[in-house]
Design goal:
Elements (H helix, E strand, L loop, with lengths): L16 E2 L2 H11 L3 E6 L5 H11 L2 H10 L1 E6 L10 H14 L7 E5 L5 E6 L6 H9 L20 E8 L2 E8 L3 H22 L7 H7 L6 E2 L2 H16 L27 H8 L7 E4 L4 E4 L12 H15 L4 E6 L2 E5 L8 E6 L7 E7 L3 E6 L4 E4 L2 E4 L13 E8 L2 H25 L4 E6 L4 E3 L6 E2 L2
Helix pairs in contact: 3-5, 6-10, 10-11
Bound molecules: adenosine-5'-diphosphate and magnesium ion.
The site of adenosine-5'-diphosphate has 20 residues, from α11.
Length: 464
């Protein structure tokens, strides 16, 4: 069944297995993917054959590996007819000496591009392919793998908690040798996010935000300095974007529902009545009294486009203060990374393909940056075959069209969050124009026609 191992003959075509570790290291450096070395005895070791048949040649594994791993086969055939070249035998012996000194077969070892061992495992009877992939993923480019593959993970130093906060999937990671410190910091970050949620949520009756909304047109409300400052910053973004970003969009929240419950468009009258309430100029701040006043009755504010970014910034800050020098917070697609990954390489963030959201079509290296994506593929209303995104154009009261996703890259997650939403409203031309004028901020847009547009200085990596 398994004949010549040499020349990649035993593996399916279309997926590259290297026989030379040095070549593999070069590839790993280029792609920033880890190397998976598989030690096996192809013609004498039963579990090795099983591993190959059930896992390594499955389409699921191949699909994953072709994007995320550099594969090296180190075979030790017993039968004469399968013998490798002397050169290859010496090469494999040397690999085994370094990475598999006890001669465990099969053995899968993960290395970085310098040849440093990252981890490893053998054949596991009770493992499904997805379990292997989940394990490999923990060494792979962070944030680049689709959900599920990337759930709870804990390697030597990387500790991650995945949970639902602010109505979204959050992922909080700390890279830290001291396990206790890592979990303490992660929990403190999560507590901070929860605290912010309680402060800014407009659907929690007892939040200060709800109080501001209740008192619209009636009287100013004294609020916490933190909320006051957040509203102040939101108004700055409104000015910068000429009103494309407007937290008073929320008066339309009663008119549009983006949870799949809407079957027909709201009436023109309902839209017109609500849109008349949207105007950031009517959000009156008073520094002296630290009060917020929505001038008109029926006005409402909401932080859907800025809150997660703010929470991500804060969680990072809290964790840094506790001594976490390397970490990542993914707040429902709003990411902020600092320091490096466990293997010493910079964080890499995949950009999802808007057509198939589990697929990644390009990636960015980030050094102390945040990457925030707003897309119309998660929350939307489908009415008569048209997809209405959950971002509202404050001028018309209608959901915006024209773009599938907007990604903004800048050091500040809150600003990136707000700008991603703004660019959705501004559209391609005006959106990119704005970003090109802002220092240290870049963006990437996917149009409805699946064209990719970027700001002037964006350095993007594509899969070949
Ligand atoms: P996501 O929540 O998917 O990350 P965004 O950051 O773009 O996406 O935020 C979208 C949310 O922003 C909407 O669900 C809504 O709460 C709010 N929003 C919609 N339109 C506007 C707007 N023009 N200005 C400010 N906030 C908006
Ligand atoms: Mg946003």
């Amino acid at each position: 069944m398994l004949t010549s191992f040499y020349a990649h003959a035993t593996f399916a075509e279309g997926i590259q297995w290297y026989t030379d570790i040095e070549v593999a290291k070069q590839e790993a450096e280029k792609t920033q993917n880890p190397i998976l070395v598989v030690f096996s005895g192809s013609d004498w070791c039963k579990p090795c054959m099983k591993l190959k048949q059930e896992v390594l040649t499955s389409s699921e594994f191949e699909e994953y590996a072709s994007q995320n791993l550099i594969l090296v086969e180190a075979d030790f055939p017993a039968q004469k007819k399968n013998r490798l070249s002397d050169e290859q035998t010496a090469h494999n012996d040397k690999l085994a000496e370094t990475y598999n000194p006890n001669g465990v077969f099969p053995s899968m070892i993960l290395l970085d591009h310098t040849g440093k061992k990252l981890g490893g495992m053998g054949y596991k009877k009770d493992f499904e392919i997805k379990d292997y992939i989940a394990y490999f993923s923990s060494f792979s480019k962070m944030g680049m793998n689709s959900e599920g593959m990337n759930s709870e993970k804990e390697t030597n130093k990387t500790h991650t908690k995945v949970l639902k906060l602010m109505g979204s999937r959050f992922e909080v990671s700390a890279i830290q040798e001291d396990e206790q410190l890592a979990w303490d910091a992660i929990n403190a970050g999560i507590a901070e996010i929860t605290r912010i949620e309680n402060l800014i949520s407009s659907w929690k009756e007892d939040s200060e935000t709800s109080e501001i909304n209740r008192k619209a047109g009636i009287e100013p409300v004294k609020v916490d300095k933190e909320l006051y400052d957040l509203i102040h910053r939101a108004l700055r973004v409104s000015k910068l974007t000429d009103g494309a970003f407007d937290i008073s969009f929320a008066s339309l929240e009663k008119v549009w529902k983006f949870d799949g419950s809407m079957t027909e468009l709201p009436s023109k009258e309902a839209i017109a009545a609500s849109v008349a309430k949207i105007n950031y100029h009517n959000i009156i701040l008073d520094d002296e009294t630290q009060t917020v006043f929505l001038k008109e009755e029926g006005m409402r504010i909401g932080f859907g486009a800025i809150g997660k970014g703010y929470a991500a910034n804060r969680a990072k800050k809290i964790m840094q203060e506790m001594g976490i020098e390397n970490g990542l917070v993914n707040a429902g697609g709003d990411l902020i990374g600092w320091g490096e990954q466990e293997d010493g390489t910079v964080w890499k963030i995949g950009i999802a393909d808007p057509q198939e959201k589990d697929k990644i079509f390009s990636w960015l290296s980030i050094v102390n940056q945040s990457v925030v994506t707003s897309g119309n593929y998660e929350k939307f209303a489908m009415i008569d075959g048209t997809r209405y995104a959950h971002i509202i154009d404050p001028r018309t009261g209608m959901p915006v069209t024209g773009l599938k996703s907007v990604t903004v890259i800048c050091p500040d997650a809150e600003l990136a969050d707000a700008l991603a939403t703004s660019i959705f409203v501004l559209g391609e031309g005006a959106g990119i124009n704005l970003v090109n004028q802002l220092k240290g901020i870049e963006c990437l847009l996917v149009t409805d026609e699946n064209e990719i547009k970027t700001s002037e200085h964006l350095a993007l990596n594509y899969y070949e």
